[in-house]
Amino acid sequence: MNIVIIGGVAAGAKAAAKIKRLLPDAKVSIYTDDTHVSYSSCGLPYYIQGNFTDYRMLLVRSVEEFNAAGIDVFLESRVEKILLKQKQILVCNKTEAYLVKYDKLIIATGARAIIPNIHGVKNFDNVYTLRKIEDGIKIREKMLNSKRAVIIGSGYIGLELLEAFVKNGLQVTVIERSSRLISSFDADMSELIRQRLESVDKRNFEFLTGEIVTEILGENRIATSVKTHSGKVFETDMILICAGVTPNSELAKEAGLEIGKSGAIKVNKLMQTSIPDIYACGDCCEEPHIISGKSVWVPLGSTANKEGRCAALNAAGIYSPFEGVLGSSVSRCLNTTMSMTGLNEKQALEAGFTPVSAVVSKTDKVAYMPDVGDITLKVLADKHSGLLLGGQAIGALGADKRINSLATALLAHLTVKEFKHNDLTYSPPYSTTIDPLLDAMSILCSKINKHC
Amino acid sequence: MNIVIIGGVAAGAKAAAKIKRLLPDAKVSIYTDDTHVSYSSCGLPYYIQGNFTDYRMLLVRSVEEFNAAGIDVFLESRVEKILLKQKQILVCNKTEAYLVKYDKLIIATGARAIIPNIHGVKNFDNVYTLRKIEDGIKIREKMLNSKRAVIIGSGYIGLELLEAFVKNGLQVTVIERSSRLISSFDADMSELIRQRLESVDKRNFEFLTGEIVTEILGENRIATSVKTHSGKVFETDMILICAGVTPNSELAKEAGLEIGKSGAIKVNKLMQTSIPDIYACGDCCEEPHIISGKSVWVPLGSTANKEGRCAALNAAGIYSPFEGVLGSSVSRCLNTTMSMTGLNEKQALEAGFTPVSAVVSKTDKVAYMPDVGDITLKVLADKHSGLLLGGQAIGALGADKRINSLATALLAHLTVKEFKHNDLTYSPPYSTTIDPLLDAMSILCSKINKHC
Questions:
Q1: A407·B428 Cβ contact <8 A
Q2: Residue A425's domain spans which residues?
Q3: A330: which of A224, B53, B81, B425 fits an S-S bond (Cβ 3.0–4.6 Å)?
Q4: Could you confirm whether B445 is annotated as catalytic?
């Protein structure tokens, strides 16, 4: 049995390790165009920040460890083509092109940064995206010799880099084309995130929303400023493109595998693509949403790991359906925790629900405790059925605690009425007597009273 | 409508406030033998520690606030008797005894510290229990002038006081009659708690397990040492009795209300006692356990609040069943978080389950993060059905996050197989890529494989 895996960051690395354990006699090989395999790309902002200085801390399994486990790893080896009929892939490295046979193929090509249509965006060496280890190394090096940075985009990665740069003393401008920051959150929560961040230390950074960067200016491959559609110009030593990601699904598409509406590879619950013996997992493929039931594309490291494991199990012949995602996530920027799960308001409407919401602002522990912080929690439920749909929490550490409890409730398809009986832990250093989640349920109950 | 509430710390205070809002025209009165009403007794260890210095921070609602809401509060007014036929209570204060009529009676008499059978235990002024605000004030005053303390008992309150005393520079001896600390945890987790605490700072405190204090020695009402059954003697400046609590159910029992096996007042889901128009809530009554279905007695502040609210709703004629408890709790001692929910091994066996367990020790966030800690998590499930039964977590902040997710799963009666698909949040400062909870589910799956 010849098992070939394309890509080896999270899903691919996990799939390779798992399938080799399941089928010790199989030949398992990873082909990747990357210079590294099996690493924590989510940790790159913390490497850049200087929370640790050796980037090798990010490596989960080294090539040597894979080899010791009997797995071959081919770095800087780009798969250019999948030949379905022949069950072969075409691999190109620096010196040669060659064909490799497979019995089972697992595609884990991940996602890449979106490069917006900005004049000059490709002309400069100090314009960065952050996906790979080399990106992180280059950005950290440059940051240590910079005074100003412009970040284009205000999603999780943009805000994590804002923290990294501010903590390293840079003056930072975040430019967001949308009218608000981090638009995966509902508008009211987005606004609270902005207020909270701006209240921390407004001297070191500024947010510009509703501004589109149209041009990057500079010379000798060194960008020195960006210009926006309204004519504003910002001088800078480095520019970070954090405008979102797009799935690396071209290889699959070109081979004729079915692609979903999101642009990511379509798979069934067994992580099988539309072609027998070809599986996909991680940031390159879609997944079912547990609440909406629809196919969604939510590229996250935790999901990639689970899908990699699941693809390996199914490819090895062990029935192991992947039940889907809730889109649960958490990120930190300058002591603000931002976390969410399930559907936001827009997604809930699109999925055919009638969302009602409760927003609770409360201390994260009893107010007399010395290190008290605050949390704003928003919970959404369907007005007709009382079904919990999703939630968002921002504020102190502990915001994510509430979101994980809510995620578990979403997994179980609980209603507001059922959740309000939840027996959550309480002690003054950990929570208020009535947890914000339970307050939110009380408010929701009063909005959908026939079910409460 | 004349509504009388006996007791006013958590459940009673909540019930009074709620029922007055529901029935603005009703006469609502609280009778309590306490000197204060509506306060956070869970916060007393932090007041003693000095996290804040004004005990009034512990007050949730003052007498004046109750009065302003139209609620009468009678402090230091002990209810000596309930006259069922006459629907009256007999109240005694410092100067007089009098009768009060009721239409609805809500009993919220709480619990009191157990005083073990120790020779001399009542002879000294520096032997304390901790339940009320005056207790806290006295203990803090004495602590500030003490060098040594003996704590008898190692439950949550004993360990919270250990933290308070150690942080104030005292040399502390904790003496526990059982063979291990904090026996609400399973033996393996108890042992880990002990190891973890002892690894912090062994110079300032010691644990003695399997030792029974038989005598307190001293003179002129000042205790100076304790003696154990094995003949050990410990000199000390103050002694704390933290040997558990017992429900204040005598008043109810004497009136003929049904009392449960635990010794606490029996109530139905509407918080009604065996006598019409008499409700009970909080630490004085039993509650159903969501997993075992049995009546249990789990005296906790969070539950007291919910039951107080529920008793008020039902007494006001609004059908509002209380669905029960999971026994979820959390406590901190010297940077160790201890948290649990659901059934422990012993309780699971008693409830007729066949518990299997998974224990996972893991970092609380990705290991390269600067403030990484560790967590040990134990999850129990039924071998036959795969039903999740309970769990315990100890270690860094974030242990309780896992327990709250698990509590939500218990509320929803999820199986291991269902939980293993949970989409929990991940980011390096908050969790490992695979959360310890999901690791525990994988291990449990392999132990009950027909369901996984």
A1: no
A2: 336-445
A3: B425
A4: no
Nearest to A404 among B47, B302, B405 (CB): B405
Core vs surface per residue B298-334: b (16+ CB within 10 A) or e: bbbbbbbbbbbbbbbbbbbeeebebbbbbbbbbbbbb
Do the chains contact at A366 and B43, CB–CB below 8 Å? yes
Examine the domain organization and report whether B362 and B275 are in the same domain: no
In the prediction, which pLDDT does A449 show?
Answer: 77
Domain boundary among A243, A269, A290: A243
What's the CATH number where B386 sits? 3.30.390.30
Is the same domain home to B305 and B351?
Answer: no
Mean pLDDT (chain A, rounded): 96
Q: Inform me whether the pLDDT recorded for A317 exceeds 80.
A: yes
Claim to verify: residue A160 and residue A200 sit in the same structural domain: yes
Burial of residue B13 (number of CB atoms within 10 Å: 0-12, 13-18, 19+): buried
Exposed, middle or buried by CB within 10 Å (0-12, 13-18, 19+), for B57?
middle
CATH number at residue A228: 3.50.50.60
Q: Is residue A322 part of a domain?
A: no
Look at residue B202 in the predicted model and tell me its pLDDT.
76
pTM of the model: 0.96
Would you say residue A293 lies in a domain? yes
B332/A425 touch (CB, cutoff 8 Å), yes or no? no
CA distance A309 to A300: 15
**B234 and B165 inside one domain:** yes
Residues of B in contact with A422 (CB under 8 A): 407-408, 411
User: Counting one residue from A and one from B, how many pairs have CB atoms under 8 Å apart?
Assistant: 214
B42 lies in some domain: no
Angular region, B244: left φ>0, alpha ψ -120 to 50, beta rest: left
Per the document, the length of chain B is: 452
Q: Hey, are the CB atoms on B328 and A423 less than 8 Å from each other?
A: yes
Residues of chain A contacting B331 with CB distance shorter than 8 Å: 427
Q: Number of folded domains in chain B?
A: 3
Comparing CB atoms, the residue among A10, A58, A421 nearest residue B368 is A58
A-chain CB neighbours of B57 within 8 Å are 367-368
* Residue A92 sits in the same domain as residue A139: no
